[in-house]
Structure formats: structure tokens, C-alpha cells
Amino acid sequence: MDGLLLIPIGLPMMAGVVLLVSSFSEYRRGTAAGGVGKGLFGLVSGVMGISVVLALTAAWLGDREMELFSLLKGIPVYFRVDEAGRLFVTLVSIVWLLVTVYALTYMREEKNAKRFFGFWLLLYGVLVGLDFAGNLVTMYLFYELMTLASMPLVLHDGSRESVMAALKYLFYSLCGAYGGLFGIFFLHRYCESLTFTSGGTLNAAAIQGQEGTVLAAVFVMILGFGVKAGMLPFHAWLPTAHPVAPSPASAVLSAIIVKSGVLALLRVVFYVAGTDFLRGTWVQYGWMLLSLLTVFTGSILAYREKVFKKRLAYSTVSQVSYILFGLSLFEADAMTGAILHVVFHAFVKCGLFLTAGIFLHCLHRQRVEELAGIGKRMPVLMWSYTLLSLALTGIPPACGFISKWYLARGALQSQAGTFSWLGPVILLVSALLTAGYLLPVSMKGFFPGKTDNDMEMRTSERERKCPSGMLLPVVLLAGTAILTGIFPNPLIRYASDVAGKLLGMKGLG
């Protein structure tokens, strides 16, 4: 028993609920309705700071586990720190803290800021619980709570468009989660335990003669949890939800929430079903095929999209399936690349969505063609955007090159038949498309043509200065994208150790 695991889960969740149901004033005296008061600032900042410190302490200071209570005989609500949970909770905490700094400035003039931050704190606690979950049932409970806590962030402004986007997000997410629940029912019968164990927990005697049924159940779970990860054909909620959500919510949807789908797939495939059972089956090849189709289709849709936040949403569809493809190969280098891309994509895409929020908040521009010439007025922001774009494209020395190198090398070394060469080809084509839909924004931003200059002059009266509280997180994320590309070895060693444990090998260092 280790109660320290419960504090970073329970503290932000309780603070969020108290904030939602209390009469705590979100307004400053003498300002228009909607202005966020210092009391709310202080409460959110304090709870987030304490929660992040406690979460990181619980994750990194020793192995911990705790059984809270039993739902049914042999099915406890159980938390445990392992290598995957440690990585994901660290990523969630860093991103959440940076976006909170951004959000406290962004929400100053927004209505219903108290409600936003209530669900914001609640969602962070749920995500920590999801990352620390020690078995499939506990993971599923927090997975469903994550959907319910994040949906209000999508419908925050209350417009018809945002309500419809939130309902679409809810429908897709619940249907996907029910696919996961369907698989849990089957796996409970054929597994020795639902507790996460490297190598899997399938009972060889129980599945004898029932291999087809178990394979079908695992594939349904891959499809179900793949909904949250934006895998085809269930990706449509992302480009609908991202543009209408407040920019801080868009950032964590892309950087963190979709990674929860990745974590769920990681748990099912490597900690319950096991790669020995799935290797060479139609489930593995079907997963690889869907992943590569998603990579290519998402890149094409992003390249054609003119609304900037939608473009970034389609980019997320593509980039997250880089991770899924690497995991589906069951090869050490590819898995190392996938784990690295979990980290790198979270930082980069978070920074890009926060940049899009500044374009909207300060410039009132949301279409790509409206962004010409802004490099002259916001050079620090545009240089940060450019560095983040280089990282996502995979141009050295930015971090994206490292993860994509390992993904391509792992694919070439795998025994995946056609996919061993088709994968690197599609990844290369996707990288070229990524450059095609991100870098022209920088080029037009710094070097607008005559027509672009005319448009800029007509809209410049609506501009306002970018607050430092919104600019700083973007600069830090851009710096992180470059520094982790120049000094990647500690992350590579950790990712290879995780990959090695999941495949029953020693870390690759």
C-alpha cells in the first residue's frame, strides 16, 4: 500500500470538483464580466504546482503500488508505477504545467473561466490515474472518466458548432471505449490476470483452440482504443473538435489526450495479449496497414486544409499513427522510435497549437493565407513556430529526426514483409507533405508577396501585442524540441530500455 499514489490523482480531482460546485468568484473587481481574478489564478497555480511535484515524486522515487478496493472478486481498482506509466505521467505533467501558464493568460477575457479550470484540474487528476493504472479495469475506468472530463473543454464557448463537435467527440470516444470493454470481457476469461505484466498474461491452456476468438477480441480493442489515437477510419472527431475548443484545450487534446489512446493500445498489446501471441497474425498486419493508411491520409488532408487549426488536427491524425506503426512492428528499434515520438510529438504539437491560439487571440486570424507577413510583427513567435515545424518534419538537429530515424531503421530491420520497406517510404512521403503544409507558413510569414502585404495592411488594425504569459510556453517548447534533438541520448536510453522490457530484451542504449 502506498498512499502517495493517490494524492496526485485525488488532489486535482477534488480541487476541480470544488471549483465547479462552489460560488468562488472568477471576476476581478472593476472589470467586465469574464475577467479572471487573482484568487482563481492562485488556486489553479497552487493546485497544479503541488500536484505536478507529487506526481513526479510518486513516479520516479521508487516502485509503488496500491490496491484501492475491489469492484468484483479478483478485479481490484489497482495502481502501480511501471516504466510506461512513469514516462506518460512525466509527459502529462510537463505539458499540463506549461499549458496552464498559457491558459491563465488566455482565459483572462474568456467567459466561464472558473468552469474551464474546474474541468482542467479534474482532467489532470484523471490522466494521472490513467497513467498509474495497474490493470485493464482500472485503466478503463479512468479512460472513460477522461472522455467525460475533457468533453466540456471542447464545448466551452457554448456555440452550436462547439456543442455539435463535443457530441461528436463523445460519440466517437464512447463507441471506441465500448470496443475496449468488449475485449476486456473476453480477455478476462482467457488471461491469468488483468494486471499489466510485460510479455502478457494470456493463459496458454485456456486459449488453446480459441485463438481466433482471442485475436478478434484483441483487434476490436485495437480499433476501439485507436479511436482516441485518431486511427482510421475513426479519426473524424479530431478536425471537428480542435478548431472549436479553446486553444489550451486543443493543445492538450493533441499532445496528451490522443496519447492516452496510444497508452491503452500499449497496455493491451504488450502487457496483456503479448507479442508472442500476436506476432505474424492478421491482427498485427491489419494494425500495420491501418497505421500506414492513417499516416498517409492524415498528411494529405493536412496539406489540403486551409484552416490552420484543422490543418494541425489532421497533422495529429498522421503523426500519432507514426507511433502506432512503430509499436505494431514488434521490433526493438521501431518501438524505441515510437516511444521517442510520443515525447517529441507531444512537445512539438503542443507548441504548434499554442501558436495557433496566439494567431487567433492576438491577430484574429485562423486561415493559412491570413498568416502572411506576421513574422515582421511577431518575430519571436514565428521563429519558435519555424523551429517546431522543422522538428515535426524531421529535419536535423530537431528532435523529430531522431524518432523518425529509429522508426525507419526499425521497419527495415523487421520481418514484416512488404511493410518493412513500405513503411519507410510512406514515412518519407509524409515528412515531405509535413514540410509542405507547415513551412510555407514561415516563408509567407517572413517573406510576404505584394498581395499578401495588401491583405496584412487591411487586417492589421485588429492586432494586439502577444502577452508574455502566452509566448513563454511556446518559446520553451521550441527550445525543448531543438535541445532534445541535439542531446537525445538520455531519452534514447530510456526509450530503448522500455522497448527492451516490453519485448523481453535488454535495453539497446
In short:
It contains 20 helices and 2 strands. By secondary structure, the chain is mostly helical. The radius of gyration is 22 Å and the shape is globular.
Describe the structure.
The protein has 509 residues and is an all-alpha fold. It has a domain at 279-449 and 467-508. 73% of the residues lie in helices and 3% in strands. It contains 20 helices and 2 strands. The protein has a two-stranded antiparallel ribbon. α10 (247-273) packs parallel to α13 (308-328), α14 packs antiparallel against α15 and α14 (332-363) packs across α20 (489-502). It is globular. Residues 27-36 have low confidence and may be disordered. GO terms for molecular function: NADH dehydrogenase (ubiquinone) activity; oxidoreductase activity. It is an enzyme of class 1 (oxidoreductase). It is found in: Cell membrane; Membrane. Residues 75-117 form the NADH-Ubiquinone oxidoreductase (complex I) chain 5 N-terminal domain. Keywords: Cell membrane, Membrane, Oxidoreductase, Transmembrane, Transmembrane helix.
The helix-strand sequence is HHEEHHHHHHHHHHHHHHHHHH
Total number of beta strands: 2
What proportion of the residues is helical, as a percent range?
over 70%
Assembly status: single chain
Shape: globular
Mean pLDDT: 87
Radius of gyration: 22 Å
Distance between the termini: 33 Å
- For the biggest β-sheet, the strand order reads 1-2
DSSP helical segment count? 20
